[in-house]
From TrEMBL, chain A:
Pfam families: BcrAD_BadFG, DUF2229. This is 2-hydroxyglutaryl-CoA dehydratase. The lineage of its organism: Bacteria, Bacillati, Bacillota, Clostridia, Eubacteriales. The keyword Iron-sulfur applies. GO terms for molecular function: iron-sulfur cluster binding; metal ion binding. Keywords: Iron, Iron-sulfur, Metal-binding.
UniProtKB/TrEMBL annotation, chain B:
It comes from the Bacteria. InterPro entries: Dehydratase_Activator_Redct. Residues 419-443 are annotated as: Disordered. This is 2-hydroxyglutaryl-CoA dehydratase. It comes from Faecalibacterium prausnitzii.
Length: 975, 443
C-alpha cells in the first residue's frame, strides 16, 4: 500500500493506493490551519480504517508539509514535483499543467524541456484570492462562479496580486457595476495573472491539464483559461488529488502511520518562532486601558420626533456606509453603520426614509457626503455638500483634540494618515496599492481560520507570545502566517501578531516613521479597525504614547461631514437642505448600465447610473467629455503637448529602407534624436503605436520578470507591434549613459532603461529572424558617437554608410533633440505665464519622460487640469536652477532633473510638485526621500503618486483633492 | 538637501575601531588582517537576528534593496548593542560607483545614522572608483595589493572547501583546514608578507595539496552553482544561510569567486573606452592591472586543477562566455558577469543554479531573470531558479523553490541527460533570439 499526504495552505489531502496503484481511499478537507492536529487525525484514521496496523509507503508533500515531514522523518516531495510524477503516470500525453491551489499558482511544462514555474513572492495566491474576492462580493465561491456565467462584459482588474485586484474591485462595487460582470472579471484577472506571471515568455500549448481546487470547482475559470490560451484543456478525475497521488507514487519508505502521528506530538512541543512581547502584562493593565478609551465620547441626546434643524453626514466608504445626524450643538442624535453590500444607495435611501418616517417634524438643514461613494451619493439624493474624506476626518478629529497633530485612520480597505501643522493638513499618507488590506485583511484572515472577526481579535489580547510577522504587504503576510502555523504558533498568538503587523505596516510601510516624535504627540486614531483593542494597544505600544480613540472611531468621516455641513450652513445662512423629500426618496430608483464611451480613443468603460427622475450619474470617465459633451481643454497641460510633439514624427520615405522604433521607456525623450538621425541617413522611421491596454496584453506573455516596472513591461507590446509592421530593422539601443545636463554627479540611465533591449532580445520570439539593432551607444560623447556608429555599429547591419553621412545625421540628431527640449521649455514657460494670468495653481507633475505615456500615467495629468490647475513637466523647469548639493549620490540624468525641479518649486509660491513613481522602481526608493526633503526644506508639501499597470484613480483623486484642500487652507492662512 | 556629515579623518585611523559588515565570510576574515597591518583597527560584524532587519526597515526606505536594509540594520544593531565606544567607532561600507542604486548605500547609511541618533559616527567608503576623495580611509596601493591577495586566498579556500566538505569521511575536516589556513595566512599578512604574486604562486599549491589530502569518498551528488547580487549571493545573513541549506540537502555548492567581481569592475572601465571612447590611458592601465591579476589567477586555478579539483577558466575566458547572450556593455550591478557565471557553471557541470537577488533588484531583471530563457535555450542541461530575498519573503517559500529545483536535479543525476550538452556557436545564434519550442531536451 502507498499513502500520499498533501498539506496545502488551506486544505489537506490524502490518498491510499493499493499494490496496483489503484486509488482505494481519498479525502480532501479544509484544515483551518490546525495542520498538526488534522494531519495526526488523518494518519490515525487511515491506519485504523485502511491499513489495520500494517506499514505503508508514505511521503508528504504540499506547501505547509515541509516542516512537518522533517520532524517525523518522513520523506518530503516538493509539490510541483509530485504533480509531475502523478501526471506522467495518469495523463502521460500532457504537455502542460496549470495548477492553482489555495495560495499557489503553478505552471508545469512537461514536453520540450521540463520546467516548472511557481508564483513569485509578489503574486498573491489564487484560491485564497478568489475566496477573498467572493467575500468582498458577499458570495460563496460557488455562487460567484454561477454569477460569472451570467456575465455580459468584463472589467479590467489588476492581474498581479490580490491586494491590487481588491482595490480595483471595490470601486466597481461602489460604482454599482453588476456583480455578475465583476465575478467574471475576477476570473479573467486570475487567468491574466497566471499567464503573465508564470508563462514568462514560454508559450502554453498542446494538451493542457487543469488541476487544483479553483480550476476543479469553477467552470468559468476553466473557460477563461481556454479562451485566453486558445486551447481546450481538460480537468481530469481526481484533479484535487494529484499532489497527494504523486506523493504516494514517489513514496519509497515504509512507516506505521500511527507511529508517525505520535512522532508529530514531539514536533508540536518543540515548535519555535520569533515572537513579540505580550500586549498586556495582566488583566489590570487591560482594564485600565479599556476604561481610558471609553472616556473619549461625543454627547448623545435623544432624537425626538419633532426636531431640527439637524445636519446629516454620510460616509460612503469602501466596504461600509456610515451615517450620523447631529444637532446644532454638534451632539449626536443618531448613528448608523453597516456594510455596503456592494451598493450603498439602497441602504442610504432606507436610512433616510427611516429618519423621515420616525421624525415627521424633522428639519434637515444640510446633508454632506464623503468617502469613496461621495459623488454617487451626493448626486443620487441631491445632497448639499461633498467633502473629500481626509478633510472630513480632520474636522471630526479636531472635535476631540483641537490641537491634534497627527491622525491615523485604518478602515476596511484603506489606511490614511495625515500630519497637521499650523492647523492645516501638511502631509498625507495613503496606503499605496501594495500594503492595503488593513481591516478587511484581518477579517478575511479570521474567516479563513474559521473565526468571527470580533472573536478573532479578542483572542489576541492576552496572547503570551505574539508572532512576529514582519511589516510588509498583506500578501506576504499570508506566507508568514503559514510559516508561523508550521512552527506551531497558537491562534491567539497569530491573532495578536496580525494586529501588531497592521500597526507596523501603517508606521513603517505607509508613513515610514522612524520615531514616534516625528509623527507628533497628539494623536487621534480612527477607523473601524481601531475598535479592535489588540490593534489599538499595539499602536500605542509601538508609538510609545497614549492616543485618543473616540467612541465613534468608525464614524468619524460621517461625523466630520455633518460638522462641515453645520459650519457651512451657518456661514451661508442656509437652513433647509436641498435633499430629496420623503416622497422623492420613496420613488427613488436606480438603474445601472455600463457602456463603452465613444468620445475618444480611450474607450473608457463608463458606469451610468440613471435615477428615477431621469438624472444621470456617470463614473469611470477619464475626462469630462461624456458628462459635458465638450472635448478636453489641453491648453494648460504640458503632458498633452509632449504627446503631440512625439506624435508629429511621421515616417519620411527614404532611399535606404525603413526602421522601427518602439515608443517606450527612453524613446519618450530620445525619439526626436533618433528620428532625425535615421531620417537623415535615408530611413523611413516608423514608431510603434501609442501604448494601450491591448498592446500591453499582446506582449505580456514574453515578460521574464514579473516584478519589473510597468513601463518596462509595456515595451514587450511595442516590440510585438513593430514585429508585425514589415520593417527592415527594429532599433532600440542600449544606453548606459544618458545626455549630461550638468545637474548631477554623473548621467546614467537606470539599469532598466539602459539595458532593457537585452531582455527583449532574449525573450521575444517574434524578433527571431528580424534585424534587431540593440548595440551599446554613447550619445553623451557626440564626437565618439559618430565615429563608433560609423565604424562599429552601422556596418554590422547596413553597407555603404560613410562617416561623413553619419556625421551629418548626428548633427541633425543633436539639433533636433535640442530643438525638442527647447520647445518643451518654451511651452512650459507659456503655460506657467498663462496659469499665473488666470490665477491658477501650477502643478509640476514630475516623473520620467516615459511617464508621458497615457497608458503609464492613466490620465493623471487630465485629472489635475480638471481640478483647475496647470500641469508642467520636470524637464521644462529643471534648467532653471544651478547644480546644487544633494544628500544622495545624484547620478542619473532623469533624477537630477527631478531634484532640480523640486528645488525650483520651493522658490515659486504658486507651484507645487507631485511625483509619479512607477511601482517596482528601485531607483525611486532613493529619489522619493530626497525629493521630499528638498520640498519640505523649502516649506512645500510633498505628494507622491504610485502608479502601476492598473491605478485606482479614485484614490489618486482623493490624494489630489486633499492636496488642493491643504493648499487652499495654506493660502487662506497666509492672507 | 545636504548634510554636513562627519568625515573619517586620517587621525581616526589610530583612535577608531572600524566596523565592517560581513559579506563573503572567509575573504573578509582575511581582509581584516590586511587592514590591521595597515594600521586600522577593525571588526567584522557578526550580529544577525530579526533586530537587524527590523532596524533596517525602520530607518531605510522600505523599497530600497534588501542588502541596504540589512547592512544598515546590522550597523545600527551593533551601535545599539553598547559593545562599542561610540566616540571611537567608525563604519566602512563599499561603494561601487555604478549606475545601480547600490552606489547610494553610503548616503542612505548617513541619513539613517542621523535619524537613529548617531549623527557623529563617521562613515568611510571602500571603493576603487575615486569616490569620497576627501576621506581619511584611502585605498592605497599597498593596501590594495594586500586586499587582492586576501580575495585570492579566500576564493581559493572556499572553492576547495566546497568541493571537499560534501565528500569528506570525517565531517568538519575541510572546515578545520580552512580555519587553519586563515590563521596561518593571517599571521603572514600581519607580518607584512604573503601578498606578492610570487608568494601567492608559491602558496597556492600548498593549500591545494592539503585539501586534496583530506580523506574523501566521492559519490555522485547534485552540484549547485550560486550566482546573484553580490551581497545576497555571499552573505549568510542576506540569503538565509543558503550554503548551509544546500549542503543540508546533500549538494555540492559552487559560489564563483569574489575576484571575478573585482576584475569585472575593472574591466568595465576599459570597456567604456571601447564602446564610447574616452581616454586611452585608462584602458591601458586597466589592461595592465587585469594582466597582473590574470597571472596570479591562472596559477591559482592551475594549483587547484593539479590537485584534482575543478577549476573554472580564468577571467579572460569568462569574458568570452556571454558572447551571443548579453553584451559586455551591460555593466550595472553584477551586469554581464552574472550571466557569464551562469554559463560558466553550466559548462563546468554545475547546471543547477540558484540565482539570488534582492526583491525588485533592477539589474537582475536584465542580467538574471532576463537571460534565463536564453541560457536555457542554449544549454538544455541548465536548471536555473531565481530566488528573491526580502525582509518578508519567508524561508519556507524560498526553500520550497530550491527544493523543486533540486528535485529535477536529483532526477537528472539518476537518469543523466541523453544528448550531449553542446553550446551553440555565436554564428548559430546570430539569427536572433533562440526559440524555446525548438529545444530538443526531453527529460
Amino acid at each position: 500500500m502507498r499513502v500520499g499526504l498533501d498539506i496545502g495552505s488551506t486544505t489537506i489531502k490524502c490518498v491510499v493506493l493499493d499494490e496496483n496503484d489503484a486509488l482505494v481511499y481519498s479525502t480532501y478537507e479544509r484544515h483551518y490551519s490546525h495542520i498538526l492536529e488534522k494531519a495526526q487525525e488523518l494518519l490515525r484514521r487511515i491506519d485504523t480504517e485502511q491499513l489495520h496496523g500494517q506499514t505503508a509507503l508514505l511521503s508528504i508533500s504540499g506547501s505547509a508539509g515541509m516542516g512537518l515531514a522533517d520532524s517525523c522523518k518522513v520523506p518530503f516531495v516538493q509539490e510541483v514535483f509530485s504533480t509531475r510524477v502523478a501526471v506522467k503516470r495518469f495523463v502521460p500525453r500532457t504537455d502542460c499543467v496549470i495548477e492553482l491551489g489555495g495560495e499557489d499558482a503553478k505552471i508545469l511544462f512537461l514536453t520540450n524541456g521540463t520546467e516548472v514555474r511557481m508564483n513569485g513572492s509578489c503574486a498573491g495566491g489564487t484560491g485564497a484570492f478568489i475566496d477573498q474576492m467572493a467575500t468582498l462580493l458577499k458570495m460563496s465561491a460557488d455562487e460567484m462562479n454561477k454569477a460569472a456565467e451570467q456575465a455580459q462584459r468584463t472589467y479590467t482588474i489588476a492581474s498581479r496580486c490580490g491586494v491590487f485586484a481588491k482595490s480595483d474591485v471595490q470601486p466597481l462595487i461602489n460604482q454599482g457595476a453588476r456583480t455578475e460582470d465583476i465575478a467574471a472579471s475576477i476570473y479573467k484577472a486570475v487567468v491574466n495573472q497566471t499567464i503573465a506571471g508564470l508563462a514568462q515568455g514560454r508559450p502554453i500549448q498542446g494538451n493542457i491539464l487543469y488541476l487544483g481546487g479553483p480550476l476543479t470547482f469553477s467552470t468559468v475559470l476553466r473557460k477563461s483559461f481556454d479562451e485566453a490560451l486558445g486551447v481546450t484543456g481538460t480537468c481530469p478525475e481526481n484533479s484535487l488529488l494529484y499532489v497527494a497521488l504523486g506523493a504516494a507514487l514517489y513514496a519509497d519508505k515504509a512507516f506505521n502511520l500511527s507511529e508517525v502521528a505520535k512522532a508529530l506530538d514531539e514536533y508540536a512541543a518543540t515548535a519555535t518562532y520569533a515572537s513579540e512581547p505580550p500586549l498586556f502584562a495582566n488583566k489590570e493593565e487591560y482594564e485600565a486601558f479599556h476604561a481610558r478609551h471609553m472616556s473619549h465620547s461625543v454627547p448623545r441626546v435623544p432624537f425626538s420626533a419633532q426636531c431640527g434643524p439637524v445636519h446629516i453626514g454620510i460616509d460612503s466608504g469602501s466596504t461600509t456606509v456610515k451615517l450620523v445626524v447631529v444637532d446644532e450643538k454638534s451632539q449626536i442624535l443618531y448613528t448608523n453603520y453597516q456594510p455596503n453590500l456592494g451598493n450603498p444607495l439602497p441602504l442610504i435611501r432606507e436610512q433616510l426614509l427611516k429618519i423621515y418616517k420616525e421624525h415627521p417634524g424633522l428639519q434637515v438643514a444640510s446633508v454632506t457626503t464623503t468617502g469613496y461613494g461621495e459623488e454617487l451619493v451626493k448626486n443620487a439624493f441631491r445632497c448639499d455638500y461633498g467633502l473629500v474624506e481626509t478633510v472630513a476626518h480632520f474636522t471630526a478629529a479636531k472635535y476631540f483634540m483641537p490641537d491634534v497633530d497627527f491622525i491615523i485612520d485604518i478602515g476596511g480597505q484603506d489606511m490614511k494618515c495625515f500630519k497637521i501643522e499650523d492647523g492645516a493638513i501638511s502631509n498625507i499618507f495613503l496606503n499605496e496599492a501594495c500594503s492595503s488590506g488593513c481591516g478587511s485583511f484581518l477579517q478575511t484572515f479570521a474567516q479563513a481560520l474559521g473565526y468571527d472577526v470580533k472573536e478573532f481579535a479578542a483572542l489576541g489580547l492576552f496572547a503570551d507570545r505574539p508572532v512576529d510577522l514582519g511589516s510588509r504587504c498583506t500578501v506576504f503576510m499570508n506566507s508568514s502566517v503559514k510559516q508561523a502555523q508550521k512552527d506551531g504558533a497558537s491562534i491567539q498568538n497569530i491573532s495578536a501578531g496580525l494586529s501588531i503587523s497592521v500597526v507596523k505596516n501603517a508606521l513603517y510601510k505607509v508613513i515610514r516613521a522612524s520615531s514616534p516624535e516625528e509623527l507628533g504627540r497628539k494623536i487621534v486614531v480612527q477607523g473601524g479597525t481601531f475598535y479592535n483593542e489588540a490593534v489599538l494597544r499595539a499602536f500605542e505600544k509601538e508609538m510609545g504614547v497614549e492616543v485618543i480613540r473616540p467612541d465613534i472611531a468608525g464614524l468619524m468621516g460621517a461625523y466630520g461631514a455633518a460638522l462641515f455641513g453645520l459650519r457651512q450652513s451657518k456661514k451661508n445662512g442656509k437652513t433647509v437642505s436641498d435633499m430629496m423629500s420623503q416622497a422623492e426618496l420613496k420613488n427613488f430608483d436606480q438603474k445601472v448600465v455600463s457602456v463603452k464611451c465613444g468620445g475618444c480613443g480611450n474607450h473608457c468603460q463608463l458606469t451610468v447610473n440613471t435615477f428615477a427622475d431621469g438624472r444621470k450619474f456617470i463614473s469611470g470617465n477619464r475626462c469630462d467629455k461624456p458628462v459635458t459633451g465638450k472635448s478636453e481643454d489641453n491648453s494648460l497641460n504640458l503632458y498633452a503637448y509632449k504627446q503631440q510633439l512625439l506624435a508629429s514624427y511621421k515616417p519620411v520615405p527614404g532611399k535606404r529602407g525603413s526602421i522601427g522604433i518602439p515608443l517606450c521607456l527612453g524613446f519618450y525623450e530620445l525619439l526626436p534624436f533618433w528620428y532625425a538621425f535615421w531620417t537623415k541617413l535615408g530611413f523611413a522611421v516608423h514608431t510603434s503605436p501609442v501604448s494601450s491596454r491591448g498592446l500591453y496584453l499582446a506582449g505580456q506573455a514574453t515578460i521574464p520578470s514579473d516584478t519589473a516596472c510597468f513601463p518596462a513591461k509595456l515595451s514587450h507590446g511595442h516590440i510585438k507591434a513593430l514585429s508585425q509592421m514589415q520593417l527592415d530593422a527594429i532599433f532600440y539601443p542600449c544606453l548606459t549613459y544618458n545626455v549630461d545636463e550638468g545637474l548631477g554627479d554623473n548621467h546614467y540611465n537606470c539599469p532598466v532603461v539602459a539595458y532593457y533591449p537585452e531582455v527583449l532580445a532574449g525573450n521575444c520570439p517574434e524578433l527571431e529572424g528580424k534585424k534587431f539593432i540593440y548595440d551599446y551607444v554613447g550619445i553623451h560623447r557626440p564626437k565618439d558617437f559618430v565615429h563608433k556608429m560609423a565604424k562599429n555599429v552601422l556596418p554590422k547591419y547596413f553597407g555603404g554608410i560613410s562617416e561623413k553621412e553619419v556625421q551629418e545625421a548626428a548633427d541633425a540628431a543633436y539639433a533636433e533633440y535640442e530643438a525638442h527640449m527647447a520647445k518643451i521649455r518654451v511651452k512650459g514657460s507659456e503655460i506657467i505665464d498663462e496659469a499665473r494670468r488666470q490665477g491658477k495653481r501650477i502643478i509640476v507633475l514630475a516623473g520620467r519622460p516615459y511617464h508621458v505615456d497615457p497608458e503609464v500615467n492613466h490620465g493623471i495629468d487630465h485629472l489635475i487640469t480638471r481640478h483647475g490647475a496647470a500641469v508642467v513637466t520636470e524637464d521644462s523647469i529643471s534648467n532653471r536652477v544651478e547644480k546644487f548639493p544633494t544628500s544622495v549620490l545624484n547620478q542619473w540624468t532623469y533624477h537630477s532633473r527631478l531634484y532640480a525641479a523640486a528645488k525650483y518649486c520651493t522658490t515659486q509660491k504658486d507651484m507645487d510638485l507631485v511625483q509619479l513613481v512607477s511601482f517596482g522602481c528601485g531607483v525611486d526608493a532613493i529619489t522619493t526621500d530626497e525629493t521630499r526633503e528638498i520640498l519640505q526644506e523649502g516649506g512645500k508639501l510633498y505628494t507622491q503618486l504610485k502608479i502601476d499597470e492598473i491605478t485606482n484613480l479614485g484614490a489618486v483623486n482623493i490624494r489630489l483633492r486633499s492636496l488642493f484642500a491643504a493648499l487652499d487652507e495654506r493660502d487662506e492662512d497666509r492672507r | 538637501m545636504e548634510y554636513q556629515y562627519p568625515k573619517f579623518t586620517p587621525e581616526m585611523k589610530k583612535t577608531h575601531t572600524i566596523l565592517i559588515p560581513n559579506m563573503a565570510v572567509t575573504q573578509f576574515r582575511l581582509l581584516k588582517y590586511a587592514l590591521e597591518y595597515d594600521g586600522y583597527k577593525c571588526e567584522i560584524l557578526g550580529n544577525c537576528g530579526s533586530a537587524v532587519a527590523q532596524l533596517g526597515l525602520k530607518y531605510v526606505h522600505n523599497d530600497t534593496c534588501y542588502p541596504a536594509l540589512l547592512v544598515i540594520g546590522q550597523f545600527l544593531d551593533a551601535l545599539n548593542s553598547g559593545k562599542y565606544d561610540l566616540e571611537h567607532t567608525a563604519l566602512l561600507i563599499t561603494q561601487t560607483g555604478g549606475g545601480c542604486r547600490a552606489s547610494n548605500y553610503i548616503h542612505l547609511l548617513r541619513k539613517a545614522l542621523v535619524k537613529a541618533g548617531y549623527p557623529e559616527i563617521p562613515v568611510a567608503s571602500l571603493n576603487f572608483s575615486g569616490l569620497e576623495k576627501d576621506s581619511g580611509f584611502q585605498m592605497t596601493l599597498p593596501l590594495a595589493r594586500r586586499a587582492l591577495a586576501c580575495i585570492f586566498y579566500g576564493d581559493m579556500l572556499c572553492a576547495l572547501r566546497n568541493q571537499t566538505a560534501p565528500y569528506e569521511n570525517e565531517k568538519g575536516s575541510a572546515d578545520k583546514l580552512v580555519d587553519k589556513w586563515v590563521e596561518r595566512l593571517g599571521r603572514v599578512l600581519l607580518a607584512g608578507k604573503g601578498f606578492t604574486a610570487k608568494e601567492m604562486k608559491h602558496t597556492f599549491p600548498l593549500i591545494a595539496r592539503e585539501f586534496a589530502a583530506i580523506p574523501v569518498t566521492r559519490v555522485p551528488k547534485v552540484k549547485v552553482g550560486v550566482v546573484g547580487e553580490i551581497y545576497v549571493k555571499y552573505s549568510p545573513l542576506g540569503n538565509n544561510d543558503l550554503q548551509k541549506f544546500l549542503e543540508s540537502q546533500d549538494c555540492e555548492v559552487n559560489f564563483p569567486g569574489l575576484m571575478g567581481f573585482v576584475q569585472y569592475c575593472a574591466f568595465n572601465m576599459g570597456e567604456d573606452h571601447v564602446l564610447y571612447g574616452g581616454k586611452l590611458g585608462t584602458k591601458v592601465v586597466i589592461d595592465q592591472f587585469l594582466n597582473y591579476l590574470d597571472g596570479i589567477e591562472r596559477s591559482m586555478l592551475k594549483a587547484t586543477a593539479d590537485a584534482g579539483f575543478y577549476a573554472p577558466g580564468p577571467f579572460k575566458e569568462l569574458v568570452e562566455k556571454p558572447k551571443g547572450v548579453i553584451s559586455l556593455g551591460a555593466k550595472m550591478g553584477e551586469g554581464w558577469l552574472l550571466t557569464a557565471e551562469m554559463i560558466e557553471l553550466v559548462q563546468g557541470g554545475y547546471g543547477n543554479i540558484v540565482c539570488a537577488q534582492p526583491f525588485g533588484c533592477l539589474p537582475n531583471h536584465i542580467v538574471g531573470k532576463g537571460m534565463v530563457n536564453k541560457i536555457r535555450a542554449l544549454y538544455p542541461a541548465s536548471n536555473i531558479t531565481p530566488i528573491d530575498y526580502d525582509p518578508s519573503a519567508t524561508k519556507v517559500n524560498q526553500e520550497n523553490r530550491i527544493k523543486l529545483m533540486l528535485a529535477v536535479a536529483k532526477e537528472r543525476l539518476n537518469n543523466p541527460v541523453q544528448e550531449p550538452v553542446k553550446p551553440l556557436t555565436a554564428e548559430e545564434l546570430a539569427g536572433g533570439a533562440p526559440r524555446l519550442s525548438h529545444e530538443t531536451a526531453n527529460v
